[in-house]
Amino acid sequence: PPPHGGRFFLPGGGGGGGGGGGRECGCQTPAAGSIATDTGACFQPPPDGSRRSATEEPEPAASAVPLTEEKLSLRLGLRQIAGLPAAAAEQIVAARTRDGTFSTIAEFTRRTGLGQGVIARLSRADAFASLDQDRRAAIWQALGQEQSRVDQPLLAGTDDSDDAIAGLLPPLEPADAIAADYRTFGLSLRGHPLGLHRARMEELGVTPASGLPQARDGQPVDVAGLVIMRQRPSTAKGITFVTLEDETGVVNLVVKPHVWERFRQTCRLSTAWLARGLLEHRSGVIHVVVTHITDLGASITGSEAFRSRDFR
Questions:
Q1: Best label site of 29, 147, 180, 284, fewest CB within 10 Å?
Q2: In sequence order, what E strands does the chain have?
Q3: Per the confidence metrics, is the pTM higher than 0.85?
Q4: Above 70 in pLDDT, residue 233?
Q5: Which residue has the higher pLDDT, 267 or 131?
Q6: Burial, 81: exposed, middle or buried (Cβ in 10 Å; 0-12, 13-18, 19+)?
Q7: What is the helix (H) or strand (E) element at residue 46, kind and residue range?
């Protein structure tokens, strides 16, 4: 299974990158890595970790609508923001192309003609970070914008802002910022939800994905991560293949029918698992044959906003 089930570049149409089918990635170059389709097919992912380290967040000052290649990195397109209308993204690009980059949220609002709802959505996505506005400050300023477009030609050269109050708002804690990223993009470039709990995972004896190649074949292991894909091919005799992701990589699990039925509720609905099983490490292929599953969904901040790609 692909490391991200196509999700890192393809959050679904719902909030937080929710399920219900992905969208075409909009990649214009092979450097963008895998291409996933609405049927869930995804092939030839890039080397482990390259997606996270080589990707930049969307921002009105620089982003195009699709993904774009910039030197040695990829900038996420504006359409990665869940719920942002395509027409709004086009207006942003058109305004920037016509008159250059933006310096304040008020100027951005005036030049794009976008209403409060769209500005607030961009703020929740942290799209104004390049204007030195974090999420909370940007959302505060978004509340002061008009709810719908209002042309005010006499005020075209002025930009009201509430920087004084916005500057007093405390920034989000790291866990909350990562959770907010997952709700708006279905991913985060700040870190991974599991990474914030690594110390606790080590106390529980959990092996990170990066540590599995050093484990021996047949060794009992505990692994944990976000559930990024569940797959049950018709030829697999009821076996479900599950991919977990932690901050170091991915883990492929084999869940036999009797284990799935024993932990059915967690298997079907949980967004994060702690799985115990036997490691199979043969000819460079590594997976864990699962014997026990624990639901971590309620313990991992941000995981509730993540939805796996599930298909047969």
A1: 284
A2: 55-56, 68-70, 73-75, 220-231, 240-246, 249-255, 272-282, 285-295, 309-311
A3: no
A4: yes
A5: 267
A6: buried
A7: none
